[in-house]
Amino acid sequence: MANDENSIALDNGRRNFLNWFLTTTTGAFIVSVLYPLGRYLIPPKVEESTAHTVTLALKPQEVKVNSGQIFRFGSQAAILVKTEGGELKAFSASCTHLACIVQFRSDIRHIWCACHNGHFDLNGKNVEGPPPKPLEEYVVNVRGDQIVVSKRG
Amino acid sequence: MANPGSAHGKVWLWLDERIGLGDLAKLAQKKEVPLHRHSFWYYFGGMTLFLFMIQVATGILLLLYYRPSAGEAFESIQFIMTEVEFGWLVRSIHSWSANLMILAMFIHLFSALLLHAYRRPREMTWLSGGGLLGVSLAFGFTGYLLPWNELAFFATRVGTEIPGVVPVIGPFLRRLLRGGDDVTGATLTRFYGIHVAILPAIVTVVLGLHLYLVQKHGMSRPPSAENSDAAKRTMPFFPNFFLRDLVGWLCALGVLAALAAYFPAELGKKADPFQPAPIGIKPEWYFMAMFQTLKLLPSHILGIEGELLGVLGFGLVGIVLVLMPFFDRVDLGKWSRLPAIFGILLILYSIVLTYLGYTMSPTK
Q1: Which residues of chain A have a Cβ shorter than 8 Å from any chain B Cβ?
Q2: Is the dihedral of CA B343, B345, B349, B355 positive or negative?
Q3: What's the gap in Å between the CA of A18 and the closest CA on chain B?
Q4: Which range in A52-56, B145-149, B330-334 is most confidently predicted, on average pLDDT?
Q5: Using the beta-carbon criterion (under 8 Å), do B276 and A114 form an inter-chain contact?
Q6: B116-135 in b/e burial notation, b at 16+ Cβ within 10 A?
Q7: Do A101 and B295 touch (CB under 8 A)?
Q8: Per-residue model confidence as pLDDT tens digits over B149-170
Q9: With 50 as the cut, is the pLDDT of residue A97 above it?
Q10: Residue B279 to residue A75, Cβ atoms within 8 A
Q11: Going by C-beta distance under 8 Å and a sequence separation of 6 or more, which residues neighbour residue A45?
Q12: Strand, coil or helix: A89
């Protein structure tokens, strides 16, 4: 009898070991498949354009009062606005709500997002509708007949 | 028992011996459809399936000419619409059938909800149906981008920004969906792969499970039909109900052809990431209620950003809907108030918000 019990215990030991071995091997196998798969699905970081300054392809005198236009700031869209007082201002054109590209509305003198009816004043402040934050403002410098826009700080 | 094959020809017998046609025939004969005053709603599951088959067929045809890159996608669809013979028809049917399929699916969903078809033992049927709804909306969302036009571009920018507002994992999800930080050609190829390979693979499995479960449990009877002892009348599925299904499908095909001919799918302007969103921009009608909700929510509610609350709200409604079989604890054979109130409120909310979405001035 004692022999039988011993062999059962031995069997159980072997069984446990084999179960443990099989589970960890299967686990390791699954991880070795899923890890590269997961890494593959995550898009690689693309070198962001580090430009903090951009010179626009238009002259200050070409920009009409009470108008706005989209320009490229690196890989992003930005908006240049000329106020009633003739002041040039620039902001990120990506709405702070859900990232649509905003536009200038000369009828109400707001920067406006057509997607969800968000309004920003000409200081970029969110004044109406769903946007939760103001637009990021850029610094505009006029050097001779060049407009230079740069990020703050 | 007489040999069921005896009435058939040699070919049938040959096939029966090898793939078991007789078993399939028996299965088809066994299936019965309950008859009662709500039986009409049983047609919408089959209708969804039919429109899905149309989607597969026309989708495969579109693949032959479509080119999934930011430089070529728009032009290739222009080519399909103007140069390829009947290209306009194939694309218009694909686009209209997608819309009608979602509509049929919503009718199927709400009739199953209001008739309590999700109850024991059909919880898994309901859950797999919820999965199919999710997959279909994903089909709609990814397919919408493929023409690479202005509307598609902004719909995708907004749609992929939405998971981005979820705390902690949001930005990661957004990057994963977009294939980068912005909606670019990388997003287009990603959506293309999802639309023509990943979702079809998922749908094959989940739809297979859904249909198997419908077959296994048979069609559910609403509580009122369960209670009436007056002979539980049924109709054989094959051929009686199936032929009625076919009539419906034929009508749907006629409607599709008419819609495609009189209102062909539009293409609009090519996407330009450096143009403002066009005035009056709208998503597909089945996202309209959510779109309008996001439009009407103020920027902050009790210090929390409005869109975050909105997105969490949509998620919550989805969870309650999907888990309805586990919330509805009323005995079988009795009507339950919870799904009725929830379903009707949801339908009313969607109709009102969708109506507002189409009628409110876009510039107000």
Answers
A1: 41-43, 46, 70-72, 75-77, 93, 97-103, 105, 112-117, 126, 129-132
A2: positive
A3: 33
A4: B145-149
A5: yes
A6: bbbbeebebbbbbbbbbbeb
A7: no
A8: 999 999 999 999 999 888 899 9
A9: yes
A10: no
A11: none
A12: strand
Q: Look at A42 and B364 and tell me if their CB atoms are within 8 Å.
A: no
Closest Cβ opposite residue A130 in set B157, B294, B362: B294
- When mean pLDDT is compared across A97-111, B3-17, B97-111, the lowest value belongs to B3-17
Question: What is the rounded CA–CA span in Å between residue A119 and residue A124?
Answer: 9
Judging contacts by C-beta atoms under 8 Å, the chain A residues touching residue B281 are 100, 114-115
Q: Phi/psi at B149 (nearest 5 deg)?
A: -105, 175
Among B206, B234, B216, smallest CA distance to B139 is for B206
User: B5 pLDDT exceeds 50?
Assistant: no
Angle at A23 between CA A22 and CA A28, to 5 degrees: 100
pLDDT for the residue B232? 79
As a whole number of angstroms, the distance between CA A78 and CA B289 comes to: 30
Instruction: Say whether B100 sits in a helix, a strand or coil.
Output: helix
At B17, the pLDDT band (50, 70, 90 cuts) reads very high
pLDDT digits (tens, 9 = 90+) for B236-248: 998 999 999 999 9
DSSP element (H, E) containing A150: strand A146-150
> Is A98 within 8 Å of B300 when comparing Cβ atoms?
no
Confidence of residue A74 (pLDDT cuts 50, 70, 90): confident
- Euclidean distance between CA atoms B185 and B191, whole angstroms: 10
Q: What is the token pair recorded at B232?
A: 């539980």
Interchain proximity B158–A115, CB inside 8 Å:
yes
Q: Give pLDDT, residue A52.
A: 85
User: For B32-76, what is each residue's pLDDT tens digit?
Assistant: 999 998 999 999 999 999 999 999 999 999 999 999 999 999 999
Report the DSSP beta bridge partners of residue B300. Answer: B305
Kindly tell me the sign of the dihedral angle through the C-alpha atoms of B306, B311, B316, B318: positive
Beta pairing class for B300-301 and B304-305: antiparallel
CA distance to A97, A121, B72, B75, per residue, from B270 (Å): 24, 30, 10, 9
